[in-house]
């Protein structure tokens, strides 16, 4: 992927940290709450373990994490019920998009997401999940010897490796994620982020700057929605095109 930027990379380059801290904590809390439904102990609930690790990386208060766990396990009887709902569609440039949401009002969420698709001239409801593979995704600090890290990842069982600025993005089989994460950490590598997600089987490359901006603005709008937990997209923009886009 040298010379190209996938949506996950573009988000980091554009500074996804612009998301308001309170909004980020709300999304992280929802993820913890839903994960805790199958058990409140992260040692036996891998999904909860990943959600907590992500919240810690964002410096979310421990009290907020504990509160979310209690909601998920049912200890908090007054908590609203959060539903997991996934939506699909085609964005500008026929970019396949899968949107995972966590919501306490599915009618509101589907209406607002449909509106975002319509505003962008996108197609809401088209089935596109078949264009993705379920994967474990690790983002690991390159350190002083990226080639050694690549070799260690391959030996541990990595399926694919992408160079992402100051880190390597490593794709694994979902069931291998924790094993490979542990293997890399045991030899001194720093895992920045670990999660289960979707990886496109084939990228949709956009070289027209105007169309690329429309697609990026659309994905940004989805990403900023309070109920959206994750966005997976086939979008890929060559760096030379990305560098020509106007900065807002």
Write the layout of secondary structure elements.
Blueprint: E1 4-6, H1 7-14, H2 21-35, H3 46-57, H4 62-73, E2 83-91, E3 95-103, H5 106-119, E4 123-124, E5 132-141, H6 146-156, E6 160-164, E7 167-172, H7 177-186, E8 191-200, E9 204-205, H8 209-223, E10 228-233, E11 235-238, H9 239-242
Parallel strand pairs: 9-11
Antiparallel strand pairs: 1-11, 2-3, 2-4, 3-10, 5-7, 5-8, 6-7
Helix pairs in contact: 2-3, 2-4, 6-7
Structure, explained:
The protein has helices at residues 7-14, 21-35, 46-57, 62-73, 106-119, 146-156, 177-186, 209-223, 239-242, and strands at 4-6, 83-91, 95-103, 123-124, 132-141, 160-164, 167-172, 191-200, 204-205, 228-233, 235-238. With 248 residues, the chain is an alpha+beta fold. The chain folds into three domains: 15-73, Integrase, N-terminal zinc-binding domain (Arc Repressor Mutant, subunit A); 83-129 and 203-241, YebC, transcriptional regulation domain (Alpha-Beta Plaits); 131-200, Alpha-Beta Plaits (2-Layer Sandwich), CATH 3.30.70.980. The strands form three sheets. A four-stranded antiparallel sheet has the order 4-2-3-10. The radius of gyration is 18 Å and the shape is globular. The model has no long low-confidence stretch (mean pLDDT 89).
